[in-house]
Amino acid sequence: MDTESAAKIIVKWSGKEYAIDVTDNDSISDLKNAIEKETGVRSHRQKLLNLKLKGKTPDDDCKISLLKLKPNFKLMMMGSLEEDIAEVNTTPTDLPPVINDLDIEDEEVAIENREVYLAKVEKRVKDYKIKMLSEPRPNKKLLVLDIDYTLFDHRSVAETGAELMRPYLHEFLTSAYEDYDIVIWSATGMKWIEEKMKLLGVTTNPNYKILFYLDSLAMISVHTPKYGLLDVKPLGVIWGKFEQYSSKNTIMFDDIRRNFIMNPRNGLRIRPFRQAHLNRDTDKELLHLTKYLKNLAKYCDDFGSVNHRNWEKYKPHRRN
To answer: Which fold has domain 6-87?
Structure first.
C-alpha cells in the first residue's frame, strides 16, 4: 500500500514567508486553500508565479506529485486581501511622505576608499560569477537599476504584474538601451530577480536587452559610525570585471541612497514607486529620467562630475 509523502512549501508574499504543509496527493487547489488559511488571500485571487509543469502554469486539479518539487520549495505569490481591494476605490486625503532612506551624506566621506571595503570589492570581483544575458556593446555607457520600488511596487494591491509595473518602464528601457548597456541589481536572490523580470515582461521584450543580473551575493557590508552595518551595492564589482565601464560612464538608479554609499557620485536616488493602485496614472519619474539619461549620454564625458541629486535641473554643456 502506498504511503502519502508529506512536504513543506515556503510561500513568499507581501514581504513575509509562510510554511505550507502539503502531500503528494494534494492538488494545486488544495495548496491554494491551505495558503488562504495562512495568508487570508482567497484562492481565486492567488497568482503562483514560479509553479510550473513543463514550462506552463498547472491547472488547479494538478497533483503536487507531478511538479516534483524539492523540499522547502520557495513559491512566490501575488494576491490581495479583500479589505485591501476595497480600499483601492478610496483615495486617502492625507498621505504622509514615505521615507525609505538614511541621511548618509556625512557617512559617505571616507567610506568609498577604505581599504577594508575595497578588499571586499576585490573579493566579489574574483569570486562572484556573472551569467551573461547579452554581450557588452562598444562605446556604450552603463545603467544599473534596482527593482523593488524603482521599477516595480512589490507590496501594493494588484492582481497582475502589469498593475505593479512602474509607468513607462518599457519605453524607458527602450530609450536607455540606445546609449547604455543595462544591468539589473537587486538586494534579493537571483531566483526572485528572474521571476520579477519575467513577470514585468522585461525578459522577452524585443526592443532592448539586459546585460546581466546581480543579486544580494554581489553586495558587501560596510560599517558606518551612525547607522552601523549596511549592505550596499559597490559598482566596483562591475568595473573590476569589465574594463569598458568606469565612474566616468556609469550611473545607478536606486530608491535607497545608502545602496550606493561606495559610489556616491554615480548614484541617483529615484523617487520610490509605492501604492501603485493610487499612483499608476500620475507617476512620470521614468519618463523624465529618460530625457536625463539621453542628455548625459550625449553631452557628459564624466558622470562622476555631475551632481545627480539635481538631475531635474540639469542643463548640459552642449559640445560644439
So the answer is: Ubiquitin-like (UB roll) (3.10.20)
Q: What is the pTM of this model?
A: 0.73
What's the pLDDT tens digit per position in 288-300?
999 999 999 999 9
Report how far residue 223's alpha carbon sits from residue 226's, in angstroms, rounded to the nearest whole number.
Answer: 9
DSSP state of 167: T
C-alpha span between 3 and 99 (Å, rounded): 53
Over the stretch 42-99, which tens digit does the pLDDT of each residue have?
888 888 888 888 878 888 999 988 988 888 898 888 777 766 655 544 544 444 444 4
- The interaxial angle of helices 285-299 and 169-177, nearest 10 deg, is 10
Distance CA 290, CA 174 (A): 9
The CATH fold of domain 105-313: Rossmann fold (3.40.50)
Q: Which residues contact 246 (CB under 8 A, 6 or more apart)?
A: 239
- Residue 294 CA to residue 251 CA, distance in Å, equals 12
Find out whether 166 and 279 touch, Cβ atoms under 8 Å: no
